[in-house]
Every structure is written in C-alpha cells, then in structure tokens.
Amino acid sequence: MQHKRHSDIDPRVLAQAAEWFALFRSGQVHQSETAEWQAWLVEHPDHQAAWARVEFHIDRFKSLPPKTALAALTAPDLQRRRAIKNLVLLGVVGLSSWQFSRGGYWREWTADYHVVQGEIQTITLADGSTVILDSGSALNVEFGMDLRRLHLISGEIYIETAKDNAAKQRPFVVDTLDGRVRALGTRFSVSQQTDFSQVAVFADTVEIQPSNPSAPKHLLHGGQEARFASHRVESIQPIQLDRPAWSQGVIEADNIPLSEFLLQLNRYRKGYLTCAPEIADMRIIGSFPLKDTDKILASLEASLPIKITNPLPLWVKVLPR
C-alpha cells in the first residue's frame, strides 16, 4: 500500500490523531474512549495514514509533552527544530478545545508541580513538610500569611506535615474539586478522582469539609480512609498500610481482577493497557516493584495463562493463552 505524504493528509485529521495520541499518553483513558479510537481508526484511510505518522514519530514524541504532539505532526522537517523551540506556543494553539475539555490539561501543565506519566516526585515545602506526587499528578502550592494551602488538580499526593516555622501557626489544608482537607498534625494522602475525592490517614487526624457549606465536617483518624463529594462524606473504611504503596515504589494487588490491576498499572507507564473480556476477572495477588512495568507484565505472563501482545506501539493488550 502506498503511504500518503504528509501534505496529502487533511490537517484536521492530523489534529485528531494528535489528540488521540495525547489522550493515550495522559493515562486517563476509559474503555469507551478506546472503542471510539478504534472506530475512528477504521473509519477512513486518512485516519490510518495519520496514525501511521504518529507511530513513525513515537520515539520523538516520547521527549515531548502531549500538548505539543500536533506541533511535531504538522511542522515540516526543516522547521522541526524551530517548532521545538516554541513548544509552549505551538502546544497552546495547536490542539482543539476537545483536548482541553477531556482532562483539564491546561491546568495540569501550568501547575506548580506536574509529574509526567510513569514518574513519582518528592518535594519539600517551605515549611519543611514533605509531599510525594504520584504518577500523572498536578499540584499548586500557595503559602500565605494565614494559610498553607495545596490545591490538588489531578492524581494523588502523600503528605507528611511539619510544624509551621512561621511566627503564626498557619493551618495546613489540601483543596480538591470536592472540598477541603485540613491536617491536624499528620501523615495522610489525598486523591482526586473523576466523581469524588479520597483521603487516607496514616497517623493522627484530618478534618474533611465538603465544598457545599451545608454539608457537615468529618474527622478522619489514623488507620481510616473515606471518599467525599461536594455534598457529603461517604462511609469510613479501615486501612492497614503505614503509607501508600505507590509512595514506596510498589503496586499492591490484594486479590483484585486483572482488569482493575491493569488500570492501576497503566498509571505508571506510557500508552494503554487492556485485556480480553474473558480474562478480565482473573484474580491478581502480589506486590510488584514499579521501577520496571514491563517486568511486571512479563511476570504475569510467566505465572498466568495469558500472553502479552502489542497491537500498536502505545497499546499493550493481554490475551488468554
């Protein structure tokens, strides 16, 4: 089959291919979106040609932020160096509002701290507190005269608070889309999910205040975790961990379905992980180091009746053996 030249592909189709690439790179892909991508791919030969160009430039894309995928796709080869020097501008104007509406990418990439897919970052705040950001997390930090405030935009953070070194003892809070978590001298984690926030306390106590002013506050003590939405705090559950497994470079599987395990693992690698429906309920038990996710997949393949396939460079699919 003769491949289309770059100039023969509609720029709008190239834009769609770049958006799909950025979505897969984000690690925030739902099963329905994968089906949409597959339908888009077979809809027209130009779609396949545009995606083939994405595949061709995969290695180059690995060093670029997802928002700049379109810049790399559409810039002529002789202009590619100039495009890279103007990544921010090209990234902002190059992708459509469809891209931004799917995950708040602009807020994430302009955050004070933004951890790319597959990495974990530890930071020390001005007051001496320690914050560990999980893969794909974004965080803003605002220390004022009266308040030490973290704004969790996406992902999950683990916090070990320190005593305030300012003359005035300022409260330490974490704000999410669903409300505010106030630390009362503690170690805890906060995650931002699609429809709720989640807090786990590993020592001492936190106070949860949903964003709806009429919702009551709740105290959460060490060894407890809870979900909360803007209008309520849901049932409190016990936890056994001393700190989140991911903050220690490990992913834990406590008799969970393979499909759920792959969703968790997908947060720590680029691309997309999925499995055939007939093995989705296969149970996974164990503790797996996150340093090399390919080794995790290889160990699963060696111990279970499954095989690892690569339909596309960014896509790993687990099939029955």
How would you characterize the overall build of this protein?
This protein is of the alpha+beta class. The protein folds into three domains: 6-109, no CATH class; 113-238, Jelly Rolls (Sandwich); 249-320, Phage tail protein beta-alpha-beta fold (3-Layer(bab) Sandwich). Helix content is 30%, strand content 34%. It is built from eleven helices and 16 strands. Strands 1, 2, 3, 4, 5, 6, 7, 8, 9, 10 and 11 form an eleven-stranded mixed β-sheet that branches. The protein has a three-stranded mixed β-sheet with strand order 13-16-15. Strands 12-14 form a two-stranded antiparallel ribbon. Strand 2 (121-124) and strand 3 form a beta hairpin. Helix 1 packs across helix 3. It is globular, with a radius of gyration of 22 Å. The protein starts with 10 loop residues before the first helix and ends with a strand. One of its GO terms (molecular function) is sigma factor antagonist activity.
Keywords:
single chain, 321 residues, alpha+beta, Jelly Rolls, Phage tail protein beta-alpha-beta fold, 11-stranded mixed sheet, 16 strands, disordered N terminus, sigma factor antagonist activity, Ferrdict_sens_TM, Anti-FecI sigma factor, FecR, FecR
